[in-house]
Input
Amino acid sequence: MSAPTAVWRRPDWICAESERVKAGLAEQERSWSRGFTRRSFLAGSGMVLAASLGSQLVTTRHAYAAEGTGKTLVVIFLRGALDGLATVVPANDPNYRAARPVIGIPDSQLLQLDATFGLHPSLSPLMPLWNSDKLAFVHSVGARDSNRDHFASQSIMERGTATLSSSDGWLDRVLAKDGPGTTFRAVCEGPSVVEALKASRDAVAMRGIDSLTFNNPSAKIADALRTLYTGLDAPVGALMEHTLTAVADSGPIKGTPKTPQNGARYPANAFGDALADIVRLVRSNCGLRAATVDLGGWDLHSEAGTVTAGAQTSHLTELGSALSAYTTDLGTRISDVTTVVISEFGRRVEQNSSGGTDHGFGGLMMLIGGAVRGGQMHGAWPGLAEADLTSGGDLDIRNDYRDVLGEVALKALGLGDMSGIFPGYTVNPLGVMR
Amino acid sequence: MPPASTASTSVLIDDQQLHVLRRATYGPTAELLADIRARGTNAWLSEQLAPLSIGDSAMDAVVARFPLVNAAISTLNALAQPREASLQLQQCTIARQVWSKRQLFEVMVEFWSNHLNVLTPHPATYTLKPVEDRAVIRKHALGRFENLLVADARSPAMLHYLMNNESEAADPNENYGRELLQLHTVTPSARYTETDVRDSALVLTGRSTDGKGTFVYKSELHYVGPVRVLGWSSANASASGGLAVGDSYLRYLARHEHTARNLSRKLALRFVSDDPPQSLIDNLTEVWLDTGGAIVPWLRALFTSPEFANSIGQKNRRPGEDVVASARALKFQPPTAPSNSPIIDLLNHCNSFGHAPLGWGPPNGYPDILDGWWSVGTTLGRCNVHRQFTRGYPTGLPRPPLRDLLAGPSMSTLGAVVDRLTDTLTAQRFRDDHRNALLAYAGWSASAPYDQRAVDKMLPDLTELVLNSAYRSLR
Output
């Protein structure tokens, strides 16, 4: 942590020791009068940029948006590198057959999407979305800067750039452009804030809205904690402030029925719980603009299994059943909510000697929502012929991830433009959104 | 107790011995503080850096509650429920953090477990991780990094976790070869290439297991032919010599300046601040290079550095550390009944915060900075755990009554009660406004006369609040 610019003094001491009063100190004092010091935690982090400082300070936390005005972008990150070629499968493709004699999905089992592709049968719950034009895919998509390393590649995708000097996330920049929002404008369902939202520290990380409840029933607990964390020259002061604000503003969301609507039945697991909670947030009209959910376990280097049994099939079944319940639960609000499912890179075309696949290059994205130009594949497809593969056996990247995410965010949230969201890059929309 | 220092930039007092205890242990206790005050920081540190010199028989008895932790691999292989082995290891790890007297050793065990991350419980590591924990991590935690790294490259748990066990010359699995460079040693700052990564994987081919948890070098899987990674190269001319070639490669990486710098930065992140001074990283790097990666002198240099001394209050307890430190503050004792379920309760709290010991999935290890734990839900969840702890949960861990927190000369006012409580739990007085917050919560006036009934009524809540405070969440 860099050296603090001022020493904490009680206000009466500040008067008594006027020689110590400087502009910086006065500024800190003003922030303390609201309960907490923000400046010191910003100064204390080497990762926070001036841009995010701006977004932090212009964000006024009012609890609720006007009803029905809310559009929401939901980003589901499949950590570990989804096998896009086992998910949206090239049908009747001899190259695919040859590369995946054991783990390949037989043509007879595929759910036909278009002339080229079929869907893994475990995702059959999603076919009604495809048939009603609310589901689309982009194949051969990814970050050309990715390097087959999970963390570096996830980081590139979440920051929206391979440039390490830019350490805020792409959703941080989206929200900065979006302008002021509510306490629950950004929610990460999980143990901590994801890298895409890390810099502004505005996002609420939680495991469901009901978890934001003090077991201590005293009406004085929040005031006591607020005072106990006032005037710290430490970033944890801002974290406690954020926590108390979120708890205080969570009441109406908790008052929104938890029961899934429209007969939706979620799988009983953390992923299903997270999606159900997001729908509850949407229904509460709490002003949710961006939400993230992680689902791990996709790094199937060995024993991926076959279409009838194994890890790939069970993972896709979990994904499909949860997403189906989620869209059912959303009901008509699906017109307000755009969901994008992403992963850090694809997997090698050829299965390996362990019955799995190693790290590849081009991947797959899934888009869901009423605003999505659904029922079709988007973007270019290079094919799997040997001459079209890259780096000795990988599906190439023909569609830049930023072109998809940029267009999705622009249209899903009604941003004016995408300038600055992806530093040094101009988004070229593929037409994935209406 | 000294008052909160007005010169400090932290609410934590400028007490160097307390500062050392906050960083080198899972939470200061009155006993530890008395010990370091009596013997001096250097003597205390020297003892902690020679953990076998510290008698820990009570801990041994607790470890014996988890027989699979020290079971032979043949025993583990025969388990009907192999997952139980890794669950026992997680539980035992928490128990050691709470009750072992070899505190700095446990802190460094966690440091190296995290640096050379291997997820457990996971089907690939259920039975292998307990062996790795004792035969690799604990064995070398205060030894030389070079030996740790070489042992790790023979560890079935690591070889399975990063799939080197199935890597072969014709079809190398690059997972381990890549992470070895990127995470375990030099980092991308050394500017290795994809060709280096490929050769790194080729050098390691053949390092496998017998499928029953024992390391086997399978020469028939080893790539033969010249290999070059950064400044190291070998003719690698025979399959039978491949293991020795790999060891020479690992020792090269261990001694590399970028490895020294990577680990020195990580050490400073653990013990000093989330943004450690470059001067400290430079000095630690120098010590590491001078001593050939010997861990004890490296730690000594850290704890005696001015940068360490100047870093009071600049680290935050991560959620799992909070669970353990709170258990220590309230003097939870090991279970007396046969069931380990109260220790499982502690583990479950850590799990709920995504911070179970050894439970991080990807090979990069748990984050060690506040940013990695920035969570409204966890911040609130920690307060709820403190409430449970002050109300007798988890049951089955004997602990003294809360009124023992007020032990000492009789107190004449309620203000003195608050002071005694913060003395005991934080070894310092709270700043006036924070002290007033506790008094206001209790509805007390500082000068009001001591009132046993009022104290009995409010003590659990006040204890909870002190545990919630920054005086405890900072370390």
In short: Chain B touches chain A through 62 residues (CB under 8 Å).
